């Protein structure tokens, strides 16, 4: 039988049978080869090569020109699922079109990122949608539906959610562990992933680099215990790049790579992204694991089966039936319009005293100033721009180029050393005006060029634009517009169109040295050295660093002051470069605006009170002074190719801004918990639990009109509440409004959110127009995870339904009652106490009970740690208590308000996973206290790891 007539080629058969047929025809080596990201062809069966992984976060990335939409956090700020679904559809349509001409473009797309934006210092905050699980999951479901397409059988692209699980730090991201207690796991982190999976729009997930509760995410038992129970569909788990090797090389979790690949396969990882395109190390490790009996052939088959299901769903084996074959579209008028619409809807008006909008008909003189005024920034997951609109471009087009002035606001300097002034050699800019076009076609031209001469030093020198991005991180731009950059040969050249790359080679730091400075190149860590044959970065054991004197030719703040004084209105555009300030591999150190940018808005305001601050950034800033002193503030994520046009239309009033903040904007760094504190409940994090006063609350955003809310009605209908109210545009302008519904437990027995988003909708209303909105809120949305019984529960009691324009702007409120039995105490005599099921803790972290499953609790440092378990039903009394522990230290148990506990000395031989059971002493009189319903307190010291406690009834 020829290959084209084999059963796996028969479209009349269900995918399951076809996958099994193809799997059965593959040799063991062919099956193993498919486990690597770059699976080779099986020519004898006519099976093509296949690659998992195509980045598509807000457009097709890394494959050259593509439509670039706003960053993911900007899409989250739209609060508009219908819009985001269309963006996903456009991205997947372009992926199909690009693949038709370039087989490097993959259809298994690694997007979206659904990690919750718990801490705004996270370097990858630009990739997520929101700090709230309900909003995140709604936007993620919409985007994946757009990526997947709506055909019942075939998928346009196959999206993979990133990054499973509880991943919010770049600092030591491959070795840090997120301590996630069951309530946070079920109420917060899992909820970001589950709805999109249940909607059938997701092909799989990618585990994160970090560990959760002491266990690497690539060995997560939650993949089997939770993820794969949410759907009957086969789900593909793709490793993150290099993570399988990290299990041994950096995490030291397992001793050999054979053990690591075996453990990952058994945990549910199906595709190994490791060693780039070289599959040999991975396949050798799998064979070694098979030879050692660590896995068997069925483990390989399970993973390959999941991989093949994705390939069949993408139509690879049915090109004549694939509805998406040949249907791709690229850079269409519709995509360009959608990019502008998304950028407009992502703009959030933070404050406005009536200064905005500006009236173009009045022909105001507009000064557009700041380091981001004339740039269209990309991030690590952007495609290459086909079209480009900066804020300056947009304002000139809308208000008239003759009415607009520009000042970048950065210092112009010369760098003097003993050999003279640094200079860009003549001829270094010989590319001419077509450089931008060449860069668009070949992104590699951005940096690392070696075809240009290095800098020299002489009496003439060159002037450089010095931009201080905060934290002492600088970029230096030559007169021809190129940034100083360092290639592998370590010569310093004016060779980069903009900062970029996995390791940015365009950033420097000035370090005080005597009466001058040394210039350190951040990418290599070396200092700049000036020699007779040119300027280079010297290695530590080579030439000594060259001292420089910085001579300021022009002060950026003076240019801004002059431009502001000569204008009717001023627009200061500040923010971050996504390749420099907070990005993958690097968290932020502060919420503060870089000092140089802070000085710019202050100088502009001093010269002209009609100064508006536009923050264009990947994350929130703490700008309390600007909020108090300026007449208007706006925020937008980097908005992609249409960012400038969109901003100008908002400033001119062509579009009323209606974006909403997808995360809390805090007033100061002191409002934040430690970056590695993942307990949003105990740490009082995000709008759900934050007890302070934010600068701007979750869901906040103003418009150019006003809206009234009225007639809230809440009715129980079976397993849901129907929530309805009327929104009316009572102001002068047509505008979108984002109506938000929150729920709140009024007298909870355990810590619950101040309020929690239950539903939302973005609607457009003309002046005077009213709309009756209705939402169905499941009763389960009022619930929480019951650690006492290990289940989701909706406690009986009163709950408030609230409707309004933000989490802090509640317009309507009504109370409903949920009936049911009162909360039951912990049945500790029958269930015992799992250590991680505490109600409160102090000074502890959750760790891995074993390498494959389970949790334990251990002190976080040298001081004792405490666990509190509330409402423990001890019946008529206990006869004894045993603890399952490992490590060395002490364990003590007492009623929370009773006598001091008597500690048990523990010294369990062996490693951390070698447990022993010990009988626990109780303080004098303590046995009499251990009866009835009591709160129990457990104290731990040393390296002891407590897994659980068991109680023996007194009459046993």
UniProtKB/TrEMBL annotation:
Residue stretches making up the Fibronectin type III-like domain: 737-807
GO process terms (BP): arabinan catabolic process; xylan catabolic process
Hydrolase is among the record's keywords: yes
SUPFAM superfamilies given in the database record: (Trans)glycosidases (SSF51445), Actin-crosslinking proteins (SSF50405), Beta-D-glucan exohydrolase, C-terminal domain (SSF52279)
Keywords: Hydrolase, Signal
Gene Ontology terms, MF aspect: alpha-L-arabinofuranosidase activity; xylan 1,4-beta-xylosidase activity
Keyword hit for Hydrolase: yes
InterPro entries cross-referenced by the UniProt entry: Actin-crosslinking, BXL, Fn3-like, GH, Glyco_hydro_3_C, Glyco_hydro_3_C_sf, Glyco_hydro_3_N, Glyco_hydro_3_N_sf
Family: Belongs to the glycosyl hydrolase 3 family.
Record's protein name: Sugar hydrolase
């Amino acid at each position: 039988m020829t290959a084209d007539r084999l059963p796996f080629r028969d479209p009349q058969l269900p995918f399951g049978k076809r996958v099994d047929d193809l799997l059965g025809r593959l040799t063991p080596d062919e099956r193993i080869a498919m486990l690597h990201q770059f699976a080779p062809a099986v020519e004898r069966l006519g099976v093509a090569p296949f690659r998992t992984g195509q980045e598509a976060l807000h457009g097709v990335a890394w494959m050259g020109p593509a439509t670039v939409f706003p960053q993911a956090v900007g899409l989250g700020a739209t609060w508009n699922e219908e819009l985001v679904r269309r963006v996903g559809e456009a991205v997947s349509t372009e992926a199909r079109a690009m693949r038709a001409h370039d087989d490097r473009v993959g259809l298994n797309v690694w997007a979206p990122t659904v990690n919750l934006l718990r801490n705004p210092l996270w370097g990858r905050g630009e990739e997520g949608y929101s700090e709230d699980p309900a909003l995140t999951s709604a936007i993620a479901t919409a985007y994946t539906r757009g990526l997947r397409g709506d055909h019942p059988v075939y998928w346009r692209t196959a999206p993979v959610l990133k990054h499973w699980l509880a991943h919010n730090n770049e600092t030591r991201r491959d070795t840090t562990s997120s301590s996630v207690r069951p309530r946070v796991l079920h109420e917060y982190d899992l909820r970001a992933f589950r709805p999109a999976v249940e909607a059938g729009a997701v092909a799989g997930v990618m585990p994160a680099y970090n560990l959760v509760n002491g266990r690497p995410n690539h060995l997560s038992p939650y993949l089997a215990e939770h993820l794969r129970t949410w759907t009957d569909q086969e789900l593909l788990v793709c490793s993150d790049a290099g993570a399988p090797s990290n299990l041994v090389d950096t995490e030291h979790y397992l001793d050999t790579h054979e053990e690591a690949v075996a453990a990952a396969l058994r945990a549910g990882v199906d595709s190994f992204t490791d060693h780039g395109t070289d599959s040999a190390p991975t396949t050798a490790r799998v064979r070694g694991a098979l030879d050692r009996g660590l896995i068997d052939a069925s483990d390989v088959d399970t993973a390959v089966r999941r991989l093949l299901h994705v390939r069949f769903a993408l139509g690879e084996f049915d090109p004549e039936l694939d509805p998406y074959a040949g249907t791709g579209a690229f850079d269409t008028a519709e995509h360009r319009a959608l990019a502008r619409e998304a950028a407009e809807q992502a703009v959030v008006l933070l404050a406005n005293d009536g200064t905005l909008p500006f009236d173009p008909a009045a022909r105001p003189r507009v000064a557009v100033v700041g380091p981001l005024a004339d740039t269209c920034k990309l991030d690590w997951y952007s495609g290459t721009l086909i079209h480009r609109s900066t804020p300056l471009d947009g304002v000139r087009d809308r208000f008239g180029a003759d009415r607009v002035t520009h000042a970048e606001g950065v210092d112009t300097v010369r760098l003097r050393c003993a050999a003279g002034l640094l200079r860009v050699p003549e001829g270094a800019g010989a590319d001419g005006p077509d450089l931008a076009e060449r860069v668009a076609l070949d992104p590699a031209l951005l940096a690392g060029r070696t075809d240009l001469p290095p800098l020299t030093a002489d009496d003439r020198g060159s002037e450089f634009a010095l931009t201080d991005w905060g934290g002492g991180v600088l970029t230096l731009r030559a007169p021809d517009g190129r940034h100083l950059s360092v290639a592998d040969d370590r010569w310093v050249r004016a060779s980069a169109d903009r900062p970029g790359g996995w390791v940015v080679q365009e950033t420097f730091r000035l370090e005080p040295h005597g009466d001058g400075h040394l210039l350190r190149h951040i990418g290599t860590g070396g200092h700049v050295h000036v020699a007779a044959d040119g300027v280079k970065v010297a290695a530590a054991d080579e030439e000594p660093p060259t001292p420089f004197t910085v001579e300021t030719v022009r002060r950026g703040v003076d240019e801004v002051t002059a431009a502001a004084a000569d204008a009717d209105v001023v627009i200061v555009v500040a923010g971050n470069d996504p390749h420099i300030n907070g990005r993958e591999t690097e968290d932020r150190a502060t919420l503060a605006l870089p000092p140089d940018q802070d000085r710019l808005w202050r100088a502009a305001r001093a010269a002209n009170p009609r100064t508006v601050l536009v923050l264009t950034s990947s994350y929130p800033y703490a700008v309390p002074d600007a909020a108090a002193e300026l007449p208007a503030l706006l925020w937008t994520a980097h908005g992609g190719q249409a960012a400038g046009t969109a901003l100008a239309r908002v400033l001119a009033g062509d579009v009323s801004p209606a974006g909403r903040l997808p995360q809390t904007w805090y007033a100061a760094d002191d409002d934040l918990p430690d970056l590695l504190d993942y307990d949003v409940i105990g740490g009082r994090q995000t709008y759900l639990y934050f007890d302070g006063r934010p600068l701007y609350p979750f869901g906040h955003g103003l418009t150019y009109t006003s809206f009234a809310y009225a007639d809230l009605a809440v009715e129980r209908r079976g397993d849901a509440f129907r929530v309805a109210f009327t929104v009316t545009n009572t102001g002068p302008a047509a505008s979108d409004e984002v109506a938000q519904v929150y729920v709140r437990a009024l007298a909870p027995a355990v810590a619950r959110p101040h309020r929690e988003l239950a539903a939302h909708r973005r609607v457009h209303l003309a002046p005077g127009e009213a709309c009756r909105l209705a939402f169905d809120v499941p009763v389960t949305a009022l619930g929480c995870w019951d650690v006492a019984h290990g289940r989701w529960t909706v406690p009986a009691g009163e709950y408030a339904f609230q409707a309004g324009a933000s989490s802090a702007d509640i317009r309507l409120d009504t109370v409903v009652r949920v009936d049911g039995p009162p909360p039951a105490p912990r049945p500790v005599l029958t269930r015992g106490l799992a250590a991680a099921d505490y109600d409160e803790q102090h000074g502890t972290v959750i760790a891995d009970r074993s390498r494959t499953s389970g949790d334990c609790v251990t002190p976080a440092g040298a001081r004792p740690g405490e666990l509190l378990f509330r409402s423990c039903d001890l019946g008529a009394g206990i006869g004894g208590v045993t603890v399952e522990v490992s490590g060395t230290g002490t364990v003590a148990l007492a009623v929370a308000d009773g006598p001091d506990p008597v500690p048990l000395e523990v010294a369990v031989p062996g490693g951390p996973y070698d447990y022993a059971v010990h009988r626990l002493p109780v303080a004098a009189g303590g046995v009499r206290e251990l009866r009835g319903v009591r709160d129990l307190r457990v104290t731990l010291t040393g390296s002891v790891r407590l897994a659980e406690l068991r109680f023996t009834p007194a009459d046993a």
